[in-house]
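Worked example
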Amino acid sequence: MLQPLAFYLFSLVTLLSATFVITAKNPVHSVLFLILAFFNAAGLFVLLGAEFVAMILVIVYVGAVAVLFLFVVMMLDTGFAELRKGALQYVPIGLVIGGVLLAELIFIYSAWEFAPSITNNIASPVTAESNTVSLGLLLYTDYVYAFQIAGLILLVAMIGAIVLTHRQRSGVRRQKIKEQNTRKRDDAMEVVKVTTGKGV
């Protein structure tokens, strides 16, 4: 009885927080509701027995992406009220598209059937390893090259983002490492003889 109650609780909070993400007037509140939605989605994954996916959801999305969104929203002085003025004209077409997608989802799940021969032949091996151990063994043995290629793609994307955002701006003092390394004592210090009682 406890598991269905936890499922309905996590689902209800996820739906409510996702609704508040798009309806909150303050963008900081939207990001905080997004973090709440991620936490409850992680709880749903734990109920499904996918604790590794829940942990990744909390670490990556809550710990990095959502916090990054929060800092960016708090640092940028953007007039969100002005941006939302023209958004009301797109509400009807958004409702139409959302209704079409909802109808498609209902049609898919109502017509979904498994072949009896497939469901009867599904093997369910019982292993002593957890989901995390099984996923790690599979990821670092059979798919190790694909995993490394995915890491290289992310590295290239990160370098590309740095290159695109790195630009020369006037009026900003930059560090000149070559001049600092080649600097001598005479360039930074001057010995002045001061007469007693007269000062510099």
